[in-house]
Amino acid sequence: MVLTVLKYLLDSSSWSIVHRQERRIALPSPLIANYGLTWPIGAPIEDTISATQLIFKSIPVRYPRIKIINSHLGGALPMLLQRLDNQYRWAAPQMTEPPSTQARRMWYDTVGHFHVPALRLRVVRR
Fold it and tell me: Rounded to two decimals, what is the model's pTM?
């Protein structure tokens, strides 16, 4: 694993926060693990939650120069943006920008398992 922060390559002694995070998320929900769904839907669900947490903490607004790259097209985020926009005012009243606007400040990889409609949705929402 290569980890860079502000263009500095961190050595393994600097990875303690990464390792703590890995241990924290290493126990998947029984709703996913007990049905053999850890890889089929577990990763995209984690990507959705991760991107949404960044948005609801206004990280893209507070740190506009950081390039945040979300995996797997952001999971289900493109399908949830309208719902998040409709509900953020009461769910997170401290937010100054709608979730869809903040989502446009982030980057997304194109690992969608060759599903063209998902890729098109991500491009249209951009």
Answer: 0.72
